[in-house]
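Let us practice reading a record.
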Amino acid sequence: MPQRFAIGQDSHAFEKDPALQYSKPLILGGTVFEGQPCLSANSDGDVVLHALTNAVSGITCINILGGLADEMCGKGITDSSEYLQAALRDLDRLGGRITAVSISIEAKKPKLFARIPEMREHIGALIGIDPGRCGITATSGEGLTAFGKGEGIAVFAAVTVDFDD
């Protein structure tokens, strides 16, 4: 069975306008982090699902974020899981199936370790794989970047995809 591999990346800054910092929830990997400032984005700002969507787009060669996602936002569809579903439909049309995911998150805040199992469950359900095939790591990067200094969140996502013969 042929396999392909791709990496996706995305990053967002935390909302800087004090009037908007708590205007929507912080969502990472489909998991809501209460009491945290939101990420600056037209959508829900789920940078984890955005990176994963970009990884799937790396396999299909059909970009979702940007054009299509902007159109969806214009129609009031701001749930990042909908963008991922659009990318997965493209993958399905090509006969591909995700078999493994690896996600690396760089952020000073919020503390992620205790919420990683919840994110793995949610992502596994979204893409139809066992959560045991969805690895997530988190780092502060020792404060060497803007993300490690608490100015936003950066994510890299890698996917392995099997294709029907």
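A brief commentary: The chain has one domain: 3-163.
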